[in-house]
Please model this.
Amino acid sequence: MMNYTRRDLAKLALSALPATRLLAKPNSKFGGVQIGINAPYSFRGRPADADSVLKDLISLGLSDVELRSQPVEQFFGAPKAVRAGRNATPEQLASAEALQKWRLAAPMSKFKEFRKTWENAGVKIGVIKFDGVDTMSNDVADYAFQFAKALGARAISCEIPVSKTKWFGEFAAKHKFMVGYHGHANITDPEAFGRPESWETAMSFSKYNGINLDIGHFIAGNNKSPIEFMKKYADRVTHVHLKDRKLNNGPNTVWGQGETPIKETLQTMKKEKYPFQGTIEFEYKVPEGSELMKELGRCVEFCREALA
Model:
């Protein structure tokens, strides 16, 4: 049930603020480049509810975020659903149907109030990430765009087969709202986003089909810098995922130990005054003797120094 009042939402914002930040809101725009993070994905192992995610964002000094839909929806009582594949169990199918029913009854006014709460705390929801987009009904696809707009996002991000982007691009055009398709390092599957041609195909379907450029995966799969591709299609880039990987499908590494041009990418974004977010996506193994929030802090500081 969506039984949260405006007062409840205000309490959420206040409780999320550490004592040291009650007077100063976070600001992670460095050198004109907005830095954010993919959350709660990058906070793996930590609580993933909306209150906890907001606290972690503020603790790291991050003022923008690529936020997955689940923390918001579950804050208002949405049922948890496991994506139902070809061999889905009756329980999985039932949970997916329950989530769809909940979404189609959800009032957008509640999400607008949630947006104000986060913005009052100093965090803008720049991008909304949806899972399982390719299994959505048309009604739920419409909901996804309405949801993202209500939260003040600039774009939706998702991972779907290339062939499905014609269908989803029609909804993006209907709502005049950008979609960034996330890429990985798979350059052999024609349905995967890995080769530049994959995004070019999607972009041919709709002017609102865009690029969530993951520079780590791009260099690992294509064995070349992603910067020229970013520059060529800058008007279609929704946000850039920042991580470090090695060539030839090499592993994720601590930032600065791989072969991904993170610093050069950020400096190009600064030089060209690109408006899209540089989004930390934490995937390397936390080194022995360290801990996750410390490593995330190092990633934020890496961006700050690169853009100084």
Summary: The chain has a mean pLDDT of 93.
